[in-house]
Write a structure and sequence with these properties.
Elements: H1 6-28, H2 32-36, E1 39-48, E2 52-55, H3 57-68, E3 77-85, E4 89-99, E5 117-129, E6 132-140, H4 142-149
Parallel strand pairs: 1-6
Antiparallel strand pairs: 1-2, 3-4, 4-5, 5-6
Length: 155
C-alpha cells in the first residue's frame, strides 16, 4: 500500500515528457499544431487570477495562435523550482522572468508595455485524462507582477 510500482513510475515519467514536449512545442518552436497533439478532446487553460484562457480544443487553439503566441515577451524565461507528479496531475512551481516589451493580452489584458523587467512566481497545475493533457491552470503572483511593472491589475 502506498508503493509506486515500476509501471506507475514509468507512466508518470511519460506524463512529464508529454507536458515538457507541449511546452517545447509552444514556447520554443511556436508550433500550435504540435502543442495541441497531446490535448484531450475537452481541454481548458486558465490564467488565475485574471481568468484569461480558453475552454475546448478550437478555442484553445485560437487562444494559443492568435492571443498568446503573437504577444510573448522577447526574453521570456521559465525556471522550474519544483515539480510534483502523480498518475493524474502534474504541478510545476516556476519563476517566470521577462521584459515587458509588448502587451500581454493573454495575461494582463489592457496593460500597455512598461519596458520594465519582472520576475514572478507561478504555479501550473496540469490535469491528465488517460494520458492526454485535459486542463492547465496557472496561478500567477499578480500582486508582485503589478508592483514590478508599476501598474494596477484589475481583477
Amino acid at each position: 500500500r502506498g508503493r509506486v510500482t515500476t509501471e506507475i513510475a514509468q507512466f508518470m515519467r511519460k506524463l512529464e515528457g508529454r507536458w515538457d514536449d507541449h511546452l517545447e512545442a509552444l514556447f520554443v518552436r511556436r508550433d500550435v499544431d504540435a502543442a495541441m497533439a497531446d490535448m484531450a478532446a475537452a481541454t481548458s487553460l486558465r490564467h488565475i487570477p485574471t481568468m484569461t484562457g480558453a475552454d475546448g480544443r478550437p478555442e484553445l487553439e485560437h487562444f494559443y495562435r492568435d492571443v498568446m503566441l503573437p504577444h510573448l515577451p522577447g526574453d521570456l524565461r521559465f525556471t522550474r523550482r519544483s515539480r510534483t507528479v502523480d498518475r493524474f496531475h502534474l504541478v510545476d512551481e516556476l519563476t517566470v522572468s521577462f521584459g515587458h516589451d509588448c502587451e500581454l493580452s493573454w495575461l494582463l489584458p489592457g496593460i500597455e508595455p512598461t519596458g520594465r523587467h519582472a520576475s514572478v512566481a507561478a504555479i501550473v497545475v496540469v490535469d491528465f485524462d488517460r494520458g492526454a493533457i485535459a486542463s492547465q491552470r496557472t496561478l500567477w503572483d499578480c500582486a508582485s507582477l503589478g508592483t514590478q511593472l508599476g501598474v494596477t491589475i484589475d481583477l
